[in-house]
Amino acid sequence: MRHRMVRESGGRHQKRDTGSSEAAPVPDRPVRENRFAGRPAERRAGQPADRALDRVVDQPSGRSVDPVGRPAESADRPADGFADQEEFSRRTLAAADFPVYGVAAGSGTPDGEATAGGAWTGEALAAFETSGGQLRWVEVQCGDWRSAAGPYLTVRTYRPGADCGEQLPELEDLVEDERDRVYEQLGIDEGDGPGRVRALRAWITVDGEPCAVEVHEDRPLPEPGSPAPNGSADGSADGSADGPAPVWAGRLRAGGLTVTVCGRGVAPGAVELGVIADFERCLRGRTELLRDLAARRARHVPVEQRELPPAVGMEAHRALIAQTVAESAAIEAQVRVGRTPRLPRGLRGEVGAVRWEAAVRQQMRLATETRQEATAAVTSMVNHLNRLSQQTHWLVGTAEGEAAVEEVVRYTVFASEVASLPAQRAWAQLWRERPGGGGAGVWEEQRLAEQLWLSAWEQWRAARR
């Protein structure tokens, strides 16, 4: 079980489950509490794209008893769902059977000036994951999470033997996860990586002893005419302090455990790690951060309640399709070069939510449908063309692809007698009868229905020639 307040995957792509014949029931996975709300794997009725500042927090059922006897609430900490979650996290971490590392108590801030008490501020539990009742890893954070300049640091400790039994995240992915955090929490898009990348060898102090660490540093590519970048992970300075700051990640061994560190606004050599003796500061820090994010979300006006610019004709449908097809193309390109699939940040969040809502409203107006009917129609349309782009080579960048998009849109809005009507009807049946489970026979029927649908599109192409 993963427990996080911002999503572990950031924008990591989850394949759209459109009922493909290739699909199969999803096996049980470790459950984790996420720091961000992820993008839905499939556009479903009533589910627009994810929005910046939206958060999903897994709430444990029932009330937990504090293992050290602390009261669940006090006069300055009111009872709410976050307090319940804090108790749940406290109980889980109390059962940890391996040491967890964080910034060493008493270590100064990166600029050399210690805070009150001589420690970093902003200590908080960032995430943990359990599987089969066993704690797999714990991640803590500290520093200024509200600033893209930092200083900000995350430290994740894996249980013994984790590097033998599972594939740990690449350092490049840790950097991208941190950029996702800044985008989701602060609304700042630092661009899609990789930027200017360097591999460095640095030293991090662990339990008072220097420890060698291989560091991956990634600096955003500056826009033309922007100021030169500031300091690097090796502590050097190569330009103005106003430029884009690098993010770095490193992996090291400490006390027989694998530890990963990711930072911005602080050089690895300025980091001092030590075993966390008491999680209380981290637990309370997590609760306050979650409440802060929830307060921001409460000020967010849902896109369904906003006044949007008037749409013209079927342009809203076309814009939504262009985005979703671009998402698929971006993911496929990343897979081809061996990168972890994740949506480009420019295709996530508020922009997608607005496009989705605009298409639904225009569908309601042009097709004289209720919101529920319009949402279902747009959902089917998006998945139709998304699946077609995955199954064929001609939908993107060709004249017949443009014609296919136009016919799908016209059929969705007006139920027009388009030339591709057999393919439209075949998709309607394929979508309507997509299996939610079942045995081999159900999936075989779905595979045959998909073949009939693709065949109908090939016949449409042949008739155009």
Your description of this structure?
The protein is an alpha+beta fold. Helices cover 36% and strands 16% of the residues. It is built from 10 helices and 11 strands. It has helices at 81-94, 162-165, 171-186, 280-298, 315-336, 350-367, 371-391, 399-414, 421-432, 440-464; strands spanning 2-4, 31-32, 101-103, 124-131, 134-143, 152-158, 196-206, 209-219, 247-254, 257-264, 272-275. Strands 1, 2, 3, 4, 5, 6, 7, 8, 9, 10 and 11 form an 11-stranded mixed beta sheet that branches. A hairpin with a 2-residue loop joins strand 7 and strand 8. Helix 5 (315-336) packs antiparallel against helix 6. The radius of gyration is 25 Å and the shape is elongated. The termini are far apart. Residues 4-29, 36-79, 111-118 and 237-242 have low confidence and may be disordered.
Cα shape: elongated
Strand content: 15-25%
Order of helices and strands: EEHEEEEHHEEEEEHHHHHHH
pLDDT < 50 stretches: 4-29, 36-79, 111-118, 237-242
How far apart the termini lie comes to: 54 Å
Tell me the radius of gyration: 25 Å
Described by its quaternary structure, the protein is: single chain
The largest β sheet comes out as: 11 strands, mixed
Structural class: alpha+beta
Determine the fraction of residues in helical runs and give it as a percent range. 25-40%
Give the overall pLDDT as a whole number. 78
Separate helix tally: 10
